[in-house]
């Protein structure tokens, strides 16, 4: 593929992951009306923090997925720094998600799973 591939990560909960599984691990599901942006993140550590510290306590489990997208295609999206130096996201408008999905190369993979620490009360 000209321009190569970029690896992205996405922290997700069980409901979204089930929809990804149903797609054959190939696409992200359409956004809900209250979700105007799809935001994959640019580093694994940031995705881990969200899945572990936010998704797991809120949903009972948090997952980190990774997937690869055409680097050339991703150039249309500005990298957003939303916190510290390594807190980087891409903001993909919901109406562009089908086109974004078409540029995923290979499968979406689960690389980490987190469950709430029951000893922390």
What do these coordinates show?
This protein is α+β, with helices and mostly antiparallel strands. Helix content is 29%, strand content 31%. The protein has helices spanning 14-22, 44-59, 71-74, 97-102, and strands at residues 5-12, 37-38, 62-70, 79-81, 88-90, 92-93, 104-114. The strands form 3 sheets. The protein has a 3-stranded antiparallel beta sheet with strand order 1-3-7. A two-stranded antiparallel ribbon has the order 2-6. It has a two-stranded antiparallel ribbon with strand order 4-5. A hairpin with a 6-residue loop joins strand 4 and strand 5 (88-90). The termini are far apart.
Radius of gyration: 14 Å
Mean pLDDT, to the nearest integer, reads 92
Number of helical regions: 4
The shape is globular
Proportion of β residues?
A: 25-35%
- Which bin fits the share of residues in helices? 25-40%
**Describe the biggest sheet?**
3 strands, antiparallel
Query: Order of SSEs, N→C?
Result: EHEHEHEEEHE
For the record, give the distance between the C-alpha atoms at the N and C termini, rounded to a whole number. 49 Å
Which ranges are low-confidence, i.e. pLDDT below 50, for 5 or more consecutive residues? none
Helix-strand category: alpha+beta
The number of distinct β-strands equals 7
Q: Reading side by side through the largest sheet, how are the strands ordered?
A: 1-3-7
């Amino acid at each position: 593929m000209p321009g190569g591939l970029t690896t992205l990560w996405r922290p997700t909960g069980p409901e979204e992951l089930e929809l990804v599984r149903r797609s054959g691990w190939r696409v992200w599901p359409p956004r809900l009306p209250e979700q105007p942006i799809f935001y994959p993140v640019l580093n694994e550590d940031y995705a881990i923090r969200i899945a572990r510290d936010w998704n797991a306590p809120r949903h009972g489990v948090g997952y980190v997925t990774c997937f690869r997208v055409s680097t050339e295609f991703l150039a249309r999206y500005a990298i957003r720094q939303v916190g510290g130096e390594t807190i980087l996201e891409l903001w993909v408008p919901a109406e562009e998600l089908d086109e974004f999905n078409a540029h995923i190369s290979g499968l979406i993979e689960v690389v980490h799973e987190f469950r709430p620490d029951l000893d922390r009360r």
